[in-house]
Amino acid sequence: MTVQTLPVFDASSEFYQNIGLLKVAEMAMRKHGDAVVIRASDVRDMVLLTSTEAVRYWKSHQGHFLTEMGEIASNAAITQIILGDALEQPENAALWDSTRKALGVVNRNWEKWSERSLVTATNKLLADIASAGPSVDLRGLCSIWSVRALVPTLFGESLPDVEMREGLMQIEQFYYAMSTQDADETKVPSDMPEFTAARDFLDRATGLAMDNIKPGDETVIALALAALPEDTPRNMKIDCLRPTLGRWLLEKLNIDGLALLWALTHIAQDETLGDDMRAELQDTDPFVTHDLDTPLSFSVVQECLRMYPELPFIYRITSQPVELFGHQIPERTTVVFAPWLVQRDPRYWDKPNSFDGKRFLTPNEDKSAYLPFGIGPRVRTRTSFLQHQLSVAVRAVMQNFNVQLAADAKRGNIRPILRSTLAPRGEVSVSFTEHSETDVPQKMTSTV
C-alpha cells in the first residue's frame, strides 16, 4: 500500500478559533475524511481520527497511544498534575502500602456506601423539584444532585453542596485551560492561575474533611486517614489523601450533572416518551429495580450519552509510528479520537442527530461506534457506575413528575457548547408538575 501524506485542515485563524472544536472537527472530517491533521495554531497540530476502524485499532493497540503529556494534555495527564504524586515517591512507600490496604476495604464497601449517597441525593432532588415553583433551571438542580450523589461517600459532609460544586467547576476550568492553551502557556502548569485555584480547593476540601471525621464514619477519607501514622505532618497527610480522594472523585463524578440535564431536557420535548416511561415505571421502586428491568429508561440514559458523550474528544500521543487509512502517523504525534463524531455518524446510526429514547431497545451492532467515556477496563467500570446513577435519577423523577420545557425557555440555550464538557449555552428552564394533586414524591422504600 502506498503511504499517503495526511491532509491538513488549517484552523489557526480567528474565525475557526471562535466557532470551536465541535464545528472545526465536523468541517475537517467532511472535507478530508477519517484522518486529517487539524492545525490549531502555528505550534499545534493534531491528527483527528473519526471512524470505528480507528477505534478498533485503538482497542487492539492501546500501547501505541499513550496518555502522557504532548502538545495537548490528555485527561489522565491533567489528572496526574492536579492531584500530585506524593504516594508514588520512593520515600513514601510505607504510606502507599498502608493506603492501598485501606482502599481494599473501600472497594469492598463501595457499592453499599455509594448507593446510600445516590438514594439520599435523588430524594433531595425530588424534594427540590417539588418546591421549585413554576419553572426551574436544570443546570442548578442537576449539578447539585451530582455533588450529593458522590461527594459524601468520599469527603463526608464537610463542605456545603454549593461550595463543593463551585470547587469542582474550578477543577473543570483547569482541565479546559490545559487542553486548549498552547504548549508554551501550559509548560509549567503549577504557574497557571487555574491550577492554583483547583489545587487550593482540593486541599481545602481535604483539610476540612480531615477535621470533621467522626468515629464510625463510613467514608473514603476516614479509612484513608486512619491508615496514615498519627504523627504524619498535616501537609503530608493532605498530599497523600489528595490523590486518593481526587482519583475517586474524578473517576466517579457525573460532571456537573450534565448527563442527567441532557436526558431530562430531551424527555421534556417528547411527551409520548415521558408517558411511555411512566407506564414502564408503574408499580416499581426506582431505587431497587435493576436497570435492565426498566429497558426504556435505560435506553434513554444510553441515548443521552450517545448524543452527549462525556469525552467528546480523547487525546493521546503515539508511542510509535502508526499506519491507518493508508496514512503514516509519526511517533510522538498528538492524536484525537472523536466520540462526538463517531456517535453522530450516519454510517453507524440511523438519524444520528435526533434524540431517540427507544434507540437502545435494540442494541447497536457495531460496539466500536459507542464510546462515551473512552475505552478500557476502568472505563467499563465508570460507564456502569454512571449509567446506574443516571438510571436511578431518571426513573425517580419520571415516576413522580411530568417535565416540559418552560414557556420562556430559549431553544438556543439547549445547543451544546464544548468547554471541557458538553454544556448548554445558557439557562435550561423546565416545568415539573406532579401527576396529581395528592401525589407526593416517592421516598426510599428500601434499606441500603
TrEMBL record:
Molecular function GO labels: heme binding; iron ion binding; monooxygenase activity; oxidoreductase activity, acting on paired donors, with incorporation or reduction of molecular oxygen
The keyword Repressor belongs to this UniProt entry's keyword annotation: no
Family, similarity comment: Belongs to the cytochrome P450 family.
One Pfam family per UniProt: p450
Cross-referenced InterPro entries: Cyt_P450 (IPR001128), Cyt_P450_E_grp-I (IPR002401), Cyt_P450_sf (IPR036396), Cytochrome_P450_Monoox (IPR050196)
Coiled-coil annotated spans: none
Keywords: Heme, Iron, Metal-binding, Monooxygenase, Oxidoreductase
Protein name: Cytochrome P450
Alphabetized SUPFAM superfamilies for the sequence: Cytochrome P450
